[in-house]
Amino acid sequence: MSGTPQTEGLRVTGRVWVFGDGLTTDDMYPPDAMKRDIPEAATQVFHSVRPGWTDQVRRGDIVVAGRNFGLGSSRPVAALFNQLGVAALVAEEFNSLFFRNAVNAGLPAMTVPDATSVFSDGDRAAIDLATGTWTNLTTKTTGKVPVLPGLVLEIIAGGGALSRLARQGYLPADLADVLRSPAVAAAGQGSGA
């Protein structure tokens, strides 16, 4: 492992979508969506809590949530966010398994206390996992949180665990880019059923 984690993929700026507390993996990946391929399943993200959201979200947007974000089974929700082009997740508190699935899929995730009070729908946010800093660019509010461990930052910066393993020679190197795809990330995380 290198002494300084690479920073590509650790800095994200985008439009914010704010959700509340207690969002489960069922809210993000409903059971009936699990029978569909990843592009079609992604259209069901948050359907029960904000119908039509997937028609509005754009590549580069940031999802902000409250406490207990991602409770539930180990569904490969991060792959769905990647499919939609969501650039990062920010929450007041993540379920640890959900957080790890985001890391494994190369999806930047940051814990920000009071995130749902600091950000509003439509705000522009900037997060930097390498420094632990976050900024609401709309209101000019800023803060700092503890930096994630170097290995976690390397996995995120490298596009996820499978892609990193390919670059390190544990998987065929020519598969590194393929292994970053949402469909492969979802298969690597299992169905969670």
Taking all residues together, what is the mean pLDDT?
87
Class computed from helices, strands and strand pairing:
alpha/beta
Shape annotation: globular
Number of discrete helical segments: 9
Subunit organisation of the chains: single chain
Helix percent reads: 25-40%
- Give the strand order of the largest sheet, numbering strands 1, 2, ... along the chain: 4-3-2-1-5-6-7
The unreliable regions are 1-6
Query: End-to-end distance, in Å?
Result: 34 Å
The beta-strand count equals 7
Order of helices and strands: EHHHEHEHEHEEEHHH
Task: Report the radius of gyration as a whole number of Å.
Answer: 16 Å
Strand percentage, roughly?
15-25%
Let me know the largest β-sheet: 7 strands, mixed
Structure overview:
The protein has 193 residues and is an alpha/beta fold. It is built from 9 helices and 7 strands; from the N terminus they run βαααβαβαβαβββααα. The chain has helices spanning 25-28, 38-42, 53-56, 77-84, 96-104, 115-118, 150-157, 161-167, 182-189; strands at 11-18, 62-65, 88-91, 109-111, 124-128, 133-136, 141-144. A 7-stranded mixed sheet has the order 4-3-2-1-5-6-7. A hairpin with a 4-residue loop joins β6 (133-136) and β7 (141-144). α4 runs antiparallel to α9. The longest helix is centred in the middle third of the chain and has 9 residues, at 96-104. 43% of the residues are buried. The model is unreliable at 1-6 (pLDDT under 50).
